[in-house]
Amino acid sequence: MDNRKVIIAAGGTGGHLFPAISLAHQLEQRGDAVLFVGGNLSNNPFFDQTRFAFREISCARPTFKSPAFPLGIAKGTWQSLRIFKEFNPNFLVGFGSYYTFPSLIAAKMMKIPYVIHEQNSVPGRVNRLFTQSACFTAVHFPSVIEKIKGNCHIVEMPLRPGFNAHWGKEEAKQAYGLSPSLPVILVFGGSQGAEAINQLLFDSASGLKRFQVLHFTGTEQWNVRLTEHYREVGLKAVVKPFEKEMAKAWGAADLVVSRAGAASIAEQLEMAVPGILIPYPYATDGHQDANADYLVSMEGAVKVPQHLLNPETFPEIVDSIYPNLDHMRDALIGQKKEKLQLIDCLEVL
User: Fold this and answer.
1) Distances in whole angstroms, Cα of residue 43 to Cα of each of 12, 38, 40, 46, 54
2) Which end of the chain is more exposed for a tag (fewer CB within 10 A), N or C?
3) Which of 164, 162, 181, 179 is nearest to 214 (CA)?
4) What digits encode the pLDDT tens for the residues 18-27?
């Protein structure tokens, strides 16, 4: 097959960008040329501006009462049309969010074949607008198929680079300087961090001394606060603002406490780590609740609403599921099924 030119429309959170970046690596390995197009890519902390070619376009949040929305979309669509005429792509893959809206409009106007990737269990609003005329929509959660129009393929979530290197638990703990004999709670709040989860661990630290904590805070301020606080209460912990080698972190973990973004759910399932999932309460259409339910149905996680957690209830929940971690881990391993790879589905385009 001749080398192809591929537009990847992506932007926004790590949940949208991580699978897009993973796909870009796979496409380049097959000899395809990749160009990222989306809003605010030049200052997005989850996108390596030095690694991939990209073009930034205008975009706006879909608030129809604001004049900025139609003007931003119109300008972004015009910019996308110019970019596509210059690049002459064979097809486009869109990863959702309003950052990609103008590019998808332009692809449809120019009759460029396109594929939609929907990583969540509740389809996003932008993706729902384009699935019917897409070549196909790639979904991670089987339940999505009945919620959208058009052709669908159930695919593996493209995991971020580095997940092909699986770490043994003892090796991973040693790499972080953690004790091999104490269980590790991995804590993070998604790609943007989570103030509520950071505060919960700060308030609950004294009740978790039978564990050690690997905590990615999302901000430097919380990094300093939690490092000092864990030391003060005598809880063994490694605290970082962000971790690029998440395969190593998952390898060290016996239990994860996190939001329920689609990318982290996919990583959790891949690494078979039991979890306490705290869905972001303001997620669009409650999609994080539905994402969490996917692992809960496998008996590999418990879902706890944020408002029910406090310094008393959280340690109790941790203690209550700790004896069942082996069962939960085995349940996740047993539910892992071979799925199509998105990169293979694209070979027909």
Assistant:
1) 10, 12, 6, 9, 12
2) N
3) 179
4) 999 999 999 9
Query: Residue 326, Cβ neighbours under 10 Å: how many?
Result: 10
CATH number assigned to the domain with residue range 5-154, chosen from the 4 options 3.30.1050.10, 3.30.450.40, 3.40.50.2000, 3.50.50.60: 3.40.50.2000
pLDDT in tens, 131-186: 999 999 999 998 899 999 999 999 998 887 777 667 899 999 999 999 999 999 99
Alpha carbon distance 325, 272 (integer Å):
10
Q: Which of 212, 230, 216, 202 is nearest to 169 (CA)?
A: 212
Whether residue 274 contacts residue 301, with contact meaning beta carbons closer than 8 Å, is answered with yes
pTM here?
Answer: 0.86
For the domain spanning 169-335, the CATH number is 3.40.50.2000
Paired sense of beta strands 301-303 and 114-118, if any: unpaired
Residues of the chain with CATH 3.40.50.2000: 5-154, 169-335
